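Dear Dr. H.,

I hope your travels went smoothly. While you were away I took the liberty of generating a structure for the chain from your last submission, since the lab meeting agenda had it listed for discussion. I wanted you to have the full record in hand beforehand rather than looking at slides cold. The sequence, exactly as received, is reproduced here:
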Amino acid sequence: MRTRAAVLVAAAAALSLALSACGSTGDAGTRVSPAATESPLSPGPAAVAPGDLVAAAALVACPASDPSVAARADGLPDLTLPCLGQGPAVRLAGLRGTPTVLNAWASWCGPCRAELELFGALQKSAGSSVRVLGLDASDDPSSALSLLRDAGVHHPSVRDDAGRTKGSLRWGSGLPVTYFVDADGVVVYEKHGAVTSAAELRGLVTDHLGVTVPS
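The corresponding predicted structure, in token form, is as follows:
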């Protein structure tokens, strides 16, 4: 005859098995994993570029951005990204007051490398009339800084090491992509693919931002 203790142990084991089965499946019998609810773009440990490389790249400091202005549905995403070189972190949705050309690029992207000098030249010729900002996407910061240093390109860039802007800025089909943002923060035009000449880039600025940039 089974003892009372043996009966209790058997009952507890059966209850534990039943609870385990309920927790491991959803309504359709598919196992639900907590990891499935996490973003695939969750960043790992951030890479850090050596200070001497940051200094050698001599990038223009990243611009100040408004931390309090409301984000726009037709504007840049409300993400704050660290500066690739020196300067403050930049809240993309807080870039207001000056028309902005935002170029998403990476050191591993051939067409991006080919057009970088055009954006550096635009930053010099436009002066304060247009803000030129790069967005170094899914890249290694040391590789990005080395490329800019070797190319003699010094306009500022922010870092998106984990590709958090991939969905909101729609560059998932490939880089580069350039965004033309008016002074009110509205993205008025997107150029997918490389810009091929300084004249083309100046024309895009004139057509979409209403600013004439001297050649």
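Two observations you may find useful: Confidence is low (pLDDT under 50) at residues 1-45. Strands lie at 80-81, 90-91, 100-105, 131-137, 157-160, 177-181, 187-192.

With kind regards,
E. W.
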